[in-house]
From TrEMBL:
InterPro entries: UPF0311 (IPR020915). This is UPF0311 protein H0A62_11295. The lineage of its organism: Bacteria, Pseudomonadati, Pseudomonadota, Betaproteobacteria, Burkholderiales. HAMAP family: UPF0311. Belongs to the UPF0311 family. It comes from Pollutimonas harenae. It holds the Pfam family DUF3237.
């Protein structure tokens, strides 16, 4: 008899509040409407804790009026002074009305938006080497001045 592997479990890694600047609109390109959103800082709390260093960005492609590809790159500095490079790729989708409200800087109930991602981490820290060798999932919520993410270790 063949048995299936145990379904993975999720373990909360961190809540991340990402402070963002005004979007830099690139315009309609062959790949879609492109924009870059500067990451100006933020906080990280949980099993992983520290701050987000300024200088990262979220490189977005708005595919339709309801669907956006996200690809953020930034650096976390832990409370112990270690640095962790983050690449967070995902999608955000919702009704045309809700997405238009987000685009105009208006708050939208996060439960009305599907915002999921898969963060990847790279670090030289021996203490945090397990970040290099595991997979993670993320949920997100977009607010006018920030993005709130919850990252989960896939066990």
């Amino acid at each position: 008899m063949t048995t299936l592997p145990t379904a993975p479990e999720l373990e909360h890694l961190a809540t991340i509040i990402v402070d963002v600047g005004a979007p830099q609109e690139i315009g309609h390109t062959p790949g879609g409407k492109r924009r870059v959103i500067p990451i100006t800082g933020g906080t990280v709390t949980g099993k992983l804790s520290g701050r987000i260093l300024p200088g990262g960005a979220d490189f977005q492609v708005i595919r339709t009026h309801t669907f956006t590809d996200i690809h953020a790159r930034y650096v976390i500095e832990t409370d112990q002074g270690e640095t962790v490079y983050v690449e967070n790729t995902g999608i955000r989708t919702g009704s045309a009305e809700d997405i238009a409200s987000l685009a105009h800087g208006k708050p939208v109930d996060p439960d009305r938006i599907y915002f999921r991602s898969y963060p990847r981490f790279e670090t030289a820290s021996p203490r945090l080497d397990w970040l290099n060798t595991h997979l993670f999932l993320g949920t997100g919520a977009r607010y006018p001045d920030r993005v709130e993410l919850n990252f989960y270790l896939i066990r």
